Amino acid sequence: MLNPAFIPTALLLQLMLLALLQQGLSWWSSLVLIGILLFKYISFKAQKKVRMMTINALAVMLCLLLLSQLWQQDMQDSMLQLLFFSAALRLFSIHSELQHAKKLLWVQYFLITTGFMLDQSLWFASAVFLLFFCNLYLHYLLFAPVQQRQFRWTDIRLLLWVMPLCIALFVLFPRLPPLWQTERQNQAQTGLADELSLGGLERLVQNDSLAFRVEFADEKPVQHELYWRAKVFEAFNGQDWLPDLQRTPQPPLTTPGRYRYQLVVEPHFQRSLFSLGQVSQLQGQVQTAAAGLIESRQQISRRFSYSLTSDGSAVSQQNMEEAKRNLVLRHTNPQASELALQLKQQHRTASAYAQALYQYFEQQQFSYSLRPPVLNQQAQVDQFLFQHKVGFCGHYASAAAYLFRAAGIPARVVAGYQGGVWQAQGDYLQVLQKDAHAWVEYLEDGYWRRFDATVIVAPLRLTQGLSDALSLSERQFLDQFFQRGVLGNWLQQLEWLDYYWSVWVLSFDQTEQRFIWHYFKTMPWLWIGSCIITSLLLMLGIYLWLQRSNQSQNVLLRQRMLKALRPYGEKAHYQSMESYLRQLIQLYPLQATKLKELLSAYQQFEFAEQQEQLQQCRKLLHQLAKHSSTAG
Amino acid sequence: MTLKMTVWQKIKQKLRQRFDRWLEQRQPAATELTLRQHLLYVFPSAYGAWFVLLIILLYVFGSNYQNNLILLCAYLLLSLFCCCILAAFFNLYKLQLKTSPPLAVPLYTYASQNLTLSLALSHAQHKTMLLFSGDEFEALLFETLPELIQLELYPRPRGFYQLQRFKLESYYPFGLIRCWTYIQLQQAYWVYPTPSESKNTNAAPRQQILDQPDQLAPYLPGDPASSIDWKRLAKNPWQPVVRQNSESSAPALPKTLIVTATGAALELQLSDFCFLLHQYELQGESYSLSTATGTIGPDHGQAHLHRCLQALALC
Prior knowledge:
The complex is a heterodimer. By secondary structure, chain A is of the alpha+beta class.
């Protein structure tokens, strides 16, 4: 017999799970699942039993359907769907059998936990945990008395014990490194693309989802120094900037840096990571890549955390190859090439040339816009520089890099993020996708110096953020992408909770575990141990004392009497206390008066429950015990 | 094939005997029993094993995808499993079982009739979902434990039996851990032959003896324990009182029953005698019984009746 609440609760659970795991399910599987749940609801209401044949046929059909979709889907999503189908069908088959219900719970535990593969943010995780506890409740119902609906107090106490144990295991239990590499094949990448066209970052700027969050350990850089490098584009084909294929990672330096910071990156299904200037120390599952960049060892498909130390200074040149590579240019923009040569003749050094370029952008009335005119295929840099003079950071970066290369100065385009918004009283920095930015790095004296024309064209972009740098109409254009409901606004307020959730829970790893173990080892164990032992002994003593005082007074008195009167003669088993005393009165006429008093006091205490007689008994016993030597 | 089977059965039997002997040493039969550590066995159930597999799977998944939340779930289930061990143990721990208090008349039933055996339980407040099962009675599941449980023993052929070792188990809570114990209570019971009236008996009812009130006297060492007035003893434990039956008037001529039949007729005769004995007792007559092993009586009274019935049961 199943608990009558079991099936409705399980139905509700699966419905909520279906809503929650929407993003991992394809549309047709969601439809099928809704159908199954609905049908189960109807048959449950009608008290009808579903035939096992039907279920098996349905299962075979669904498996075939899933197999046919296998090539188009990610492995992980297929697994999720398979699990969900098995859970739904199992629920479908349950009528009143304990065996099926047990299997259902097992599958549901697994299914609910797989939900953490999709998203780990605090809100989603709380919903998944809620369902997890819902399943636990179902599990409880299965083995509890049939009519019982609620937890009993003793069981709640059991669950309370579970929590600290669970946390201790989480913090202290040793962890395994990943056993096999997993890359999600069909997952769309988000964030910065692998190429940069002239107006390339447009799309990203309309997206206000979170890119990453940073917490600085001690010193924080000023706002306009926050250039988060993510990708370097070294090859230009006339339209797009592409990354160079030769990747020669350099060993990380170990010089101390000015800024120590920890980043928590949202999943973007790429390997590239973010850093400030030249990186000197790394911590976490990260490695250095070419051009002073940082990358993860595997694709980032979950929230990912790492720590860096960097100087904030310019990135150093790696080798001569690098300089040569960044000079390659097909002169497809004749006007721009001519301008570059003119400026180069007037300004010999690279830094002077950069200053001249800044001046050029300032004097020629360039402006900043999110909706620049569309450029045609031919000579895009020329069109931008001499015809429209309106553009976005992608335009400025491409054009500047072209101008540097045309003047014979090695230069490359860097894509990443600029700035960010300080959250929770300036404790951490939040960088959104709309903070995406592109700029140029040119080589001088073995260092790659930064050149960002946006500083001149839209200085507010760096200090105040993007929307302040735009005109009113453009700002309205941008705002239409950022509509949020009341709930969205409210959740935005609690964003900091989510941040500390990621820092403390999601990014807890072996490094921190090792640190904790080390901390434990260095604790003064001798002192702690002795303290614990003494307090335990003390508690035991108090416990025994309480037990003793709790024991009934009658028993204690009887024990006392037997002890005190032992010298006069032992009490036989069959004798009552009174007959024993009477016997003593006859045997010892000298003590007869006292014994008689004792007898009457004892009787009054024991049977008339006169508490004051206890004292009398004690006094008499004391006197009798004193005289026992003379009596013996 | 058959040889193999018999060897296998022999081994099984041997093991079974060994196990029984071991249990006998561990818990000899007792009238009162408190379940303590040495009597309780705790081990994961089959579902518990599946649950452990789930935990391992989640742990591997969580490690591989470096997903702390999956790991957290695995640890949550693991700690639940560990706490369940304790909870399952405490669900039986300290439970006290007592056989029904000694009566003047031994526990008895007639062949082909159920016997209801009652066991008194104490310290049973928070215990739930306990399953009593054994060879002699149908398994009984108690959701909450009453003060007194009644086991319906299956009907058996006449004779003298000891209550066999029975099993008490619980999967509570969560069904992951099974806690169980094998209990041997010292409780004997008699199965008398079924009384049945045969045609050739026609004993006329005689007048009843006047039932005189019992007389009380102080207890002296040597008095039978069965005659102690227990109600009064409870009120005043220091002065036991004994109940003395007044001697009835002189008995009439004693009736004598002699078991003579053998084989199939024996059962018929025993049933017949059983009926007669009851009738004589009801009529207050004096009677005696002779069997192959000896002669009882002549006498009357409940004790004598039961002595005679026991002799019949053992024929």
